[in-house]
Amino acid sequence: MIARVTFTAKSQIAKNDLQAQAKASLRFWGVSGDIEASAKKSMEDVNTNADVEIKLFYQGELGRFMLQSGSPSSISEGTAQASFLQAKSWADQFIQNACQHRYAYRPLLDEYRNIEGFPDDQVVPDYYVAHRMSYMILSQIVVISDMKDYLLSRTDLDIKLKYSIQVDEIKMVQLGRNWVKSTVEKPEDAITTAGDLLEKFDKDFRAKYEMLMPQKPYIAGVKVVYGGYPNTDPPAGRVKEVEGRSEDINYGRGGDFVWLVPIRTEHAEDACTSFELVIDQVPDEFGNLVKGSKDKSRYLRCKKSSSKDKIRRLALYRRKDAPAPRVTKDPPAYIKSLLGRSWVETVQSFWAFTGRTSNINQGRHGADELYLLWSPRE
């Protein structure tokens, strides 16, 4: 938070005298309780000899919170004291919402004169997209850390290999730290740079050591499980939504509760290599994904091929529309960054899925976009 105070002389007072009065009037800043009499006297002197305007500038997510709370960008009350008190109230609110720290801050009073060309409109970077990307990156770092811990616990791996695993895990963490630093400077590139980073995580660690991890059974299809009142508890082992949203296919559409449960097999020849969404009027016995709703029936078809990419992992992705991030710096570059990949492709890449169905909710007006994602790797 920056409060820029401008004193404009309105009498023949000497510059040095006005500067002294201005400094004295600002002694109240950072002091709790009532303003001292000496500070009030200085404010009265300033009010007589100058007009006071205060502009408030914020940066970061806390700045966005303050602006949403009604903080004005400019304060110019009838008196200097009224302007100062209003500015102080916003500063107090800012401090109350700030995170705990161990730094000692002080007001920069006489140093403002050294800031030449300070912008009238301080830009507040928008970190909405970067914030969402950071959670996805963190989740993948956790996966890498868990893999590292498991591999180091194996007694059959030699010391040199374990050393390489530890070094590679440290490199991945450092790449994540570097991404944070670069994204602070250029949040408009968050989607593109995060996508590149997650691909590097997958290539330089997960794929590199995956064959040393325990392999789970293949998936030979999905069982469609229905629920309804009073049986509303989702089944164990159901296919989860990657961002923690509802796994009920009929969510928000009425009808029965509909969940997907993977069918496992130890035999590669029985495993699915992809899934296809089929929209047709078929009996519910086929596994109608929209049972009980008024929408057209649909089901998932397991497709099998000679490909070695036998599916081992499934997940759902429910795409919710979010407010468009506010463009802050270079509009063309920011828009290009956002449109470079769709959200579906981004999430698919982040979670290392290799394929997906078309939108399961296509043709259901007003419904969320919903996709089944799969991967031959756990």
Overview of this protein structure:
This is Proteinrelated to zinc finger protein odd-paired-like (Opl). The chain has 378 residues and is α+β, with helices and mostly antiparallel strands. The protein has 3 domains: 2-99, no CATH class; 127-212; 218-375. It is built from 9 helices and 10 strands. It has helices at 15-25, 37-49, 61-68, 80-97, 128-153, 159-185, 190-209, 331-339, 343-350; strands spanning 2-9, 50-57, 74-75, 218-227, 257-265, 274-279, 298-303, 313-319, 355-356, 369-375. The strands form 4 sheets. It has a 3-stranded antiparallel β-sheet with strand order 1-2-3. 26% of the residues are buried.
In spatial order, strands of the major sheet run: 1-2-3
Assembly category: single chain
Which series of helices and strands comes N to C? EHHEHEHHHHEEEEEHHEE
- The proportion of strand residues reads 15-25%
Termini separation (Å)?
45 Å
Helix/strand/pairing class, anyone? alpha+beta
Q: How does the overall form come out from the CA principal axes?
A: elongated
* Mean pLDDT metric: 82
**Helical run tally:** 9
> How many strands appear in the DSSP assignment?
10
Helix content: 25-40%
Task: List the SSEs and their pairings.
Elements lengths: L1 E8 L5 H11 L11 H13 E8 L3 H8 L5 E2 L4 H18 L30 H26 L5 H27 L4 H20 L8 E10 L29 E9 L8 E6 L18 E6 L9 E7 L11 H9 L3 H8 L4 E2 L12 E7 L3
Antiparallel strand pairs: 1-2, 2-3, 4-5, 6-7, 8-10, 9-10
